[in-house]
Design brief:
By secondary structure, this protein is α/β, with parallel strands linked by helices. The chain has 3 helices and 6 strands; from the N terminus they run E-E-H-E-H-H-E-E-E.
Length: 118
């Protein structure tokens, strides 16, 4: 079967809402949120790769944009993809929120978005 749809998942962004916390606790919380964000992006890439109809760009290629503000259209041109998945992870105490968006790279339009709270 031909893989006709190309897609990549950018590294998700991790952050913490540790209001009123000491600086060291905030750093630790953000590091934890950043680690969770990386794992979520890894899982997204793995799940997308299971589809035989998708050509999924490798993690190392898409993660070269990690930590940078990027233009989705530029990423798509550089990686040769039609769609980009992006998102974030935010921690607040024991709560975690994951957001994800599917963007059509050519137009920059969001085709789908969702959030998950735990």
């Amino acid at each position: 079967m031909s893989r006709s749809v190309s897609i990549t998942s950018l590294a998700f962004i991790g952050s913490s809402d540790a209001i009123g916390s000491s600086a060291s606790r905030m750093r630790g919380s953000c590091i934890s949120a950043c680690a969770i964000a990386t794992r979520v992006a890894d899982d997204v890439i793995t799940e997308l790769s299971r589809s035989h109809s998708l050509l999924v760009i490798a993690r190392n290629s898409s993660f070269m944009y990690k930590g940078r503000a990027v233009d989705v259209k530029l990423v798509a041109r550089e990686l040769g993809v039609r769609y980009v998945v992006e998102g974030g992870v935010r921690r607040s105490g024991t709560r975690v929120r994951v957001t994800a968006q599917l963007v059509e790279a050519e137009t920059g339009n969001h085709l789908w978005a969702s959030r998950y709270d735990r």
